[in-house]
Fold this protein.
Amino acid sequence: MATLLHDDIYQLVREPIDMVGLARLVRAPEDGAIVTFDGFVRNQSHNRATLYLDYEAYESMALVKMREIGIQMHEKYGIHRVAMVHRLGRLEIGETSVYIAVSAPHRGAAFDACCFAIDTLKRTVPIWKKEHFEDGAVWADGELPPVPAETPRAKPAS
């Protein structure tokens, strides 16, 4: 699902994100900088071991919101191109969940626009993250299941 604006790329994907390819696509001779954000799955959340994450989205609305962010970036920061891709489905520890690449003639605009993009995406785009732990799962920013007390050792079978 790709949509172009100013040769921009906005996608929701279920396969690994091609970060090198996306950075190459936003690069142009008139640019002096590309700033990227690589958000990936960490192995813990709230001091608890994370097993994996699941991402779901209201896909058509998510793409509309991603495009709106891109339009705002062009208006506010004088950037050249944007690639904004979010992964859906099950992601393992270390896998990239969201990748943003911004090119601009000057680094300041690229940095500011990239920061704006991820902050606004997290607040406004209907993509939800479910964190899976050994003792259950919770939607991010929701209530966490209680941390289990020390588990008594099993008694040997008689």
Summary: The beta strands are 9-13, 33-40, 44-45, 48-49, 52-57, 81-87, 89-92, 96-104, 127-133, 136-139. Helices lie at 19-26, 59-77, 107-124. The longest helix spans residues 59-77.
